[in-house]
Every structure is written in C-alpha cells, then in structure tokens.
Amino acid sequence: MPRMLINGILRDKPASADGRFQRLPSVFRSWIEAGPGATFPAASGRYHLYLSKACPWCHSVDLMLTFKGLRNAVSITWMDPVTSENGWIIDQQGFVETAGVPRDRYLFEVYQRAAPDFTGPVTVPLLLDKPSGRIVSTESADIMRMLDTSFGEAGATGPTLYPCVLQEEIDRLTGMIHTPICNGVYRAGFAASQTAYNEAVTQLFDALNKVEMVLEQRRYLAGEAITGIDLRLFPALVRFDPVYVTHFKTDRKRIADYPALSRYLRDTGGLPGVRETIDLPHIRAHYFQSHRHINPAGIIPIGPDSPFTEISSPRGTA
Ligand SMILES: N[C@@H](CCC(=O)N[C@@H](CS)C(=O)NCC(=O)O)C(=O)O
Hints:
The protein is α/β, with parallel strands linked by helices. The chain has two domains: 3-154, Glutaredoxin; 164-278, Up-down Bundle (Glutathione S-transferase Yfyf (Class Pi), Chain A, domain 2), CATH 1.20.1050. It has helices spanning 56-67, 108-114, 140-149, 167-182, 184-189, 194-217, 228-247, 259-269, 280-290, 309-312, 314-317; strands spanning 3-6, 9-12, 32-33, 40-41, 47-51, 75-78, 126-129, 134-137. A hairpin with a 4-residue loop joins β7 and β8. α1 packs antiparallel against α7 and α7 packs across α9 (280-290). Mean pLDDT is 94; it is low at 310-318. The chain binds glutathione (GSH). Glutathione (GSH) binds at residues 2, 23, 26, 55, 57, 87, 121-125, 138-140.
C-alpha cells in the first residue's frame, strides 16, 4: 500500500474514488537564485539532492547535472532500488558522509526533520539546503530549471537548455509530453478501472505518434540542439520497452516500433555522460519488485533487447 506523510506521520495513502492515479502536486517549491540577497543563493557545495536511479524525474535532474557540468557542485544521496512499507530506503552502501546530511534509513525521515507537520507524498527528487536543513524543492521541473539558469557563477557550463528563442516551442512540447507520456505511463499502469486505463493509454499513444512526427523532422525535440524537454522525454523512453510495455500494460506499440523515436533514443543515449546515468537492472528491479499491488510475485520479466540491454541487462549477467 503506498504511503504518505499526514501531519508528519507515515500513513496509507487514500485510494482515489474513480480508479484514476493522481500524482499529488509538489509542496516544496522555493527557488535558488544567483546573487547575494537570495534566501537560497546559488553556490557550489551548498545543496544536496536525494535521487533514485529508477525514478524518471530524478533521471531528468541527473541528466541536467551532467549537461551543465554540475556533478561536483551538488552532493547526492541515492535510494535503494526497491521501496519498502516505509517508502524509499536510503542506499547505505553507497552513502557518502556529507556535512549537513545525517545518515537516515528512509527518505521520509528527511521530510520529518525538515518539516515536522508535513502532509504530502514522500518523493524523490528532493533538493536540500545543507546549512539551514530546509527543503528547497521537490519538483523536478523546477530543480532542472534552477540548475540550468541559476548556477552560472557556481560552476555551471554550457548554454542554457531553455533558450529564450525556443521557450514557446519548448512549452508547447512540454504540454505534448509531460502529462500524456511521462505521467501517462503511470496513469495507465496504476489505473484501477478499465475506463481510467483506456483514457490514459489512448492519450499516451496519441502523444507518442505526435512526437514521432516531430522527430521525423528534427534531430532533437526543439530542433538541432538538445534542450531541457529532451532531458524530460529521454528517461521515459529508456524505461518504455524494458518496463512500461509489460509492467504498465502500455503494449500497443514499443519504442522499437517507432523508427524516429528509436533513432532519437540511440542518439541521445550516445551523448557524452548519458549512458552513465542509466542503470537498467536497477530500474527494472525497482518497478517490478516495488509495485507489488500490480506485480504480486515480484518477478522481473526477461525483457526485450533495447539499446541499453547489452551494457546492463540482468540477462547479460545471468
Ligand atoms: N512532481 C514530482 C513527482 C516526483 C515523484 O512522483 N516521484 C516518485 C518516484 S518516480 C516518488 O517518489 N513516488 C513516491 C510516492 O509517491 O510515494 C517531480 O516531478 O519531481
């Protein structure tokens, strides 16, 4: 049973009445700004991220760190692949002692310490301000934007991934991709009624068909150069054939059946530093073994060939 914090106490999440999966809105939405007067000023070494290699929203943030050259500017605590009765478990083996970051067992303890009366979901990604112990943000889109735009004086490299001239187009693409695809796979997979499933899966494939047409014309979503919206779509595509098709019943087509999306997945996956952000066995273990309400025996299916299986499939190590 999924859990959430209610007045600071971990409790079962109430089920939705109509069988539709609802992702609760992020509550922490403060902003890191460049310049001295800010409550949360941009600075190398000041902020900490709690991330999961399995979670697509975290993957987008991880990709932003890579593209902006910020891997050493922000410290990170990673989650274990499989979640528990108490939600996300902190990876103890990979835990790096960091000033201002107590060694917790579960992610919910971070929320309890920073906001003792918090009511809401216990989610990754989470951005922490180490000096104050406050949670800056739990919204991946905002975290990506902050890393992209506020860290210029704090070590970020490269051009913005949300350039002025493309903002309108990126916003249009975000509307086409975020709800129907990135979130749509979850709405299909966690639907508790046929109507809710049908609605989600129809919107999902309508959107994928549209994106396929965009990518027949363009190398990346917004043109010849990669932008932030690519960093949001890519994690969903990486997980699509190896996980979503079976686990979330999104089986009308695979990404492998779309020539332009397949080409894009391979090209983007081949960019410097991108492959290192993908741990397919970890991703597959997470989905198939954490969501026992839709996969009670926790069996990890053999999975298809995908551009990333050869480096990391459990089949390669069996
Ligand atoms: N709005 C958030 C959503 C994050 C989110 O839902 N993360 C999932 C992992 S993929 C999570 O932690 N779920 C745990 C839960 O809802 O209890 C974002 O984009 O940052």
